[in-house]
């Protein structure tokens, strides 16, 4: 990967990072609404749960983005963290923070512990 390509990815990742930080601030502002009406109360609870699920998803992406930026700095960006093969440019273009090539991603999605072990970085534990 060329320096220019890396710089472009770094920019995309930093933009994504800033966007997620803004989203998080928005979600922190979610009010816990209460109602005497049981149905309404259930709807509020559902809305809160949705917000929390989306927050969890965002924080997983945020960690992946941070980790991708670290890989840009240490020169390993673009290689699958599990098998070391190059991640296809198309895949990186769509999901620049992905740590896996498509084959390892599929294995990870199926719950392959061998593959998932590759992302047990000390960095992840610190989050
Ligand atoms: Zn791989």
Mean pLDDT equals 86
Largest sheet: none
Which stretches of 5+ consecutive residues score pLDDT under 50? 122-127
Q: What is the overall shape?
A: elongated
What does this structure look like?
The protein is mainly alpha-helical and 127 residues long. It has one domain: DksA, coiled-coil domain (Four Helix Bundle (Hemerythrin (Met), subunit A), Up-down Bundle), CATH 1.20.120.910. The chain is 68% helix and 0% strand. It is built from six helices and no strands. The chain has helices spanning 3-28, 38-74, 89-94, 102-109, 113-116, 122-126. It is elongated, with a radius of gyration of 18 Å. The two termini are 29 Å apart. Zinc ion binds next to helix 4.
Q: What topology does this entry show?
A:
Blueprint: H1 3-28, H2 38-74, H3 89-94, H4 102-109, H5 113-116, H6 122-126
Helix pairs in contact: 1-2
Zinc ion is lined by residues 80, 82-83, 85, 100-101, 103-104.
Quick rundown:
The chain is mainly α.
Question: What keywords describe this structure?
Answer:
6 helices; binds zinc ion; elongated; mainly alpha; 127 residues
């Amino acid at each position: 990967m060329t320096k220019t390509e890396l710089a472009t990815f770094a920019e995309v990742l930093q933009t994504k990072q800033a966007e997620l930080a803004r989203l998080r601030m928005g979600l922190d502002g979610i009010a816990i609404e209460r109602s005497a009406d049981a149905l309404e109360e259930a709807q509020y609870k559902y809305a809160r749960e949705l917000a929390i699920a989306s927050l969890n998803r965002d924080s997983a992406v945020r960690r992946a983005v941070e980790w991708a930026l670290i890989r840009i700095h240490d020169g390993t960006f673009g290689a699958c963290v599990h098998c070391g093969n190059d991640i296809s440019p198309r895949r990186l273009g769509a999901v620049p923070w992905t740590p896996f090539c498509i084959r390892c991603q599929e294995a990870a999605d199926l719950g392959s512990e061998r593959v998932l072990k590759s992302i047990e970085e000390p960095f992840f534990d610190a989050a």
